[in-house]
Amino acid sequence: MFKQITLKSPQKESIINFEKLIDSTQNIGESLHISIVECLVNCILTVDGDRISLEKEDIVLIKSASQLILSGFEEPVTIRIFSEDISKSYSYNFAIMGSSPILHDLLATKQNEKPLYITFRHLSKSITRHYCDLLEIFNSDQLQNDVTINFEKQTIFGLLFSELIRNYQQTVALTTSQFPTKKFKHASNETIAGAIFQYIVANIRDISLERTAAYFGYSPNYFSRLCKKIFKATFSQKVNEVRIELAKQMLCLSPNSIAEIAYDIGYENVTSFYKIFKDSEGMTPKDFRDKFLADNHLKEILKK
Fold this sequence. Notes:
Blueprint: E1 2-7, E2 14-17, E3 31-39, E4 43-47, E5 50-54, E6 59-64, E7 67-72, E8 77-87, H1 90-96, H2 101-108, E9 116-120, H3 125-138, H4 147-165, H5 168-171, H6 189-202, H7 209-215, H8 220-231, H9 235-253, H10 258-264, H11 270-281, H12 285-295, H13 299-303
Antiparallel strand pairs: 1-8, 2-7, 3-6, 3-8, 4-5, 4-7, 6-9
Helix pairs in contact: 1-4, 2-6, 3-4, 7-8, 9-12
């Protein structure tokens, strides 16, 4: 299934019922539903309440969700949604049995929790764009109900998955993805990292090593060693990294003051926030926000 959505006014939103994209005639035990959202211009995609700021040709791979909301900046916004019920065949196995444990764990999980999705950034855009162009062609009305075309379409999906995971350690945006969060026992390090990132994001204002370790069922000492093994950095270093990433998103998307943003992400002292942010990004939070608003002509829109 292919759907292109264009939002002509930045003051409006487009609401998509994600569950209607699923082919209810498929046998769940024999197929896997996957949707790919390709952003054609800078936009905001909200997945079950999670706001994601996307740049042109970023991709969100969604396994489960209830509702998507598309909103934009000043110019008209267009996204392409490709949805497929993929049979567990050659092209499916070719995609998930590759070199990306994080994608394998997401697609293989039988959990019913929502939402589950991965955001990909900094892609080799000409390659992913051409695969998406091919998928649009294969989803045209004239080419439906053809067994050979369906096989070719699933193969293109497999190739697109392979391209997404080719450099997944650089392209997967951990702070704007939702991974399975249950037992760690048999999960890959990448999935464990994703679950830890999710917990940090959800509890960023008063996060602590002790509470995080207890949530995942570990002693603080063991959990500290686990973080060093997975992240090649300490827990506190990863918390600071997440805080800066969240600050950047909030400076772009939220009308809140810089002091409010600093408090929301766990900085009691706004002066400390300014220093840490500038050390990380080479500019102050105010300069970062002003640059983003100027680049997207958003100063007047954000004031409304």
